[in-house]
Amino acid sequence: MDLSSSPTPRLAFTVLTVNVHKGFTSFNRRFMLPELRDAVRQVGADVVFLQEVLGTHRHHARRVANFPAQPHYEFLADSIWSQYAYGRNAVYDSGHHGNALLSKFPIVHFENHDISVAGPERRGMLHCMLQPPELERPVHAICVHLGLQEAHRHRQLHRVAALVRSLPSDDPVVLAGDFNDWRGRAHGLLAREAGLREVFVHSFGRAVRTFPATMPLLALDRIYVRGVAVHLPVVLPRRPWNRLSDHAPLAAELVL
């Protein structure tokens, strides 16, 4: 595709999504947040969707030698992503965690939606409006972490679809995160109800396996888009990601 010949402004950017597992490897064996920050930087993504990111944790702060003093989304953003938003989902005695979004584009508005279903499992949907200087319309970036029970996920997917339907039809949408959708039920529902397509399913015919990161068996993580002219999967190396979290990341190049 020759973008230089297009009469309208185009924006090309890279997105990355990863469940950071509160900065620990599988089974909480090692704290890997500094190494994970280096790996995220190497991808060079413009927008990063994070799940299970810690806002604070007093117990870990006392016990782990290299535990950052600031919230983990600020530590990961550092000097690379000047804009970030955090949606607190789970609160407990020692701290809290949730979803976060890091962006090189201005975040002009954000809102965290509680999409938890009755019970102890707390889940959220972080909706951020990005305003790249090159575009007149905003880009809607929605970071989600859905429940472990299929009945809960079904209800949460309807909430996600309703949010997307409520947005202006001409505004581009990027929906990414940990869907816990090992049965692949989200694709059809989000396509029918919100006009979303999954980047890897569209290119490869199936979702990419991301869990567990050491030997992926389940396709839990996704990147869905609407109103995007071009979307290309980015294949990331197995290492070092297989030892940084319990989920492998996904990345894609998008053109609006």
UniProtKB/TrEMBL annotation:
Domain Endonuclease/exonuclease/phosphatase: 17-247
InterPro entries registered for this protein in UniProt: Endo/exonu/phosph_ase_sf, Endo/exonuclease/phosphatase, GPI-anchor_lipid_remodeler
GO molecular-function terms, A-Z: endonuclease activity; exonuclease activity
GO annotation, biological process: GPI anchor biosynthetic process
Matching SUPFAM superfamilies: DNase I-like (SSF56219)
Annotated keywords: Endonuclease, Exonuclease, Hydrolase, Nuclease
GO cellular component: membrane
PANTHER family: CALCOFLUOR WHITE HYPERSENSITIVE PROTEIN PRECURSOR, PGAP2-INTERACTING PROTEIN
Name under which the protein is recorded: Endonuclease/exonuclease/phosphatase family metal-dependent hydrolase
Organism: Melaminivora alkalimesophila
